[in-house]
Specification:
The protein contains eight helices and ten strands. By secondary structure, the chain is an alpha/beta fold. The chain binds adenosine-5'-triphosphate (ATP) and magnesium ion.
């Protein structure tokens, strides 16, 4: 797939780089986790927004269960978690969780029960009736992930969900996410620029780089959370700043 931002107005002396992605071909096996690594500005969020149907279709297509879906059809099919949790401050955790269903007119007592069970099951039972400002950063991100999985249990799109957290909270959140994935097995695309995080959580990783960005490194069958020093070095090398001529 490829993607070009349309109608971007820039001063004439700025080099126009509106083509962000070119020839990016990815396949995530059902229930798998794909890590997308890339330096800042490489097009990771653009890719995720395309998958989520937030951006209009570029060149190429997106298939879900071998079915091509237009951007409009994709919107609402994937549970998207942005970099900041994006909880509405005037709604409790439970009400934030139920918002996507409410917007679809599907908030029922059964759905509320399911949301409460999910909070309980993933360690947030006590937070259901709290306000977002009463949550720690890590808790708020967990709520955002649960909201996405409730809304879309099969496809989870995570845009650097750990980036605003301190190192310890980050590790806890990673463990929590690994457990959630083991239980619910959503097909997941995780955007990150942390190599170790990708190696801990993902079964396969790709590195995006260049202008426009393409996949410059692709590794599958990543053995799991234990450290793979050679692969880590290889990925770090692929993420080195590009030489600008
Ligand atoms: N709405 C937009 N209109 C025009 N250009 C955009 C828009 N959003 C992003 N871009 C450009 O597209 C390129 C890729 O941006 P993107 O946000 O996808 O990068 P990223 O890899 O997610 O970066 P980061 O790691 O900093 O989040 C950048 O050059 C950016 O300036
Ligand atoms: Mg981004």
């Amino acid at each position: 797939m490829g993607f070009r931002y349309a109608g971007r107005e820039v001063p004439r002396e700025v080099v126009l780089r509106d083509e962000v992605l070119r020839d990016v071909n990815l396949h995530v096996p059902s229930g798998g986790v794909l890590g997308v690594l890339g330096r800042s500005g490489s097009g990771k969020s653009t890719l995720l927004h395309l998958l989520a149907g937030v951006l209009p279709d570029g060149a190429g297509s997106v298939l879900l269960d071998a079915q091509p879906l237009s951007a409009a059809q994709r919107r609402g099919r994937g549970g998207f978690v942005p970099q900041k949790p994006g909880l509405l401050p005037w709604r409790t955790v439970l009400d934030n969780l139920l918002l996507p269903l409410e917007l679809k007119g599907e908030r029922t007592p059964a759905a509320e029960g399911h949301a409460l069970n999910t909070l309980e099951r993933f360690g947030l039972g006590g937070a259901a009736h709290r306000w977002p400002h009463q949550l720690s950063g890590g808790m708020a991100q967990r709520v955002a992930v649960l909201r996405a999985t409730l809304h879309s249990p099969r496809l989870l799109l995570l845009d650097e969900p750990f980036s605003a957290l301190d190192a310890l909270t980050r590790r806890e959140f990673q463990d929590w996410l690994a457990e959630l994935h083991a239980e619910l097995r959503p097909t997941t695309v995780l955007v990150t620029h942390d190599v170790r995080e990708a190696l801990t959580l993902c079964g396969q990783v790709v590195v995006l780089s260049g202008h426009p960005a393409t996949v410059t490194l692709r590794r599958e069958n990543i053995p799991g959370p234990h450290l793979n020093a050679d692969l880590e070095t290889e990925l770090l090398r692929a993420l080195r700043p590009e030489v600008v001529h």
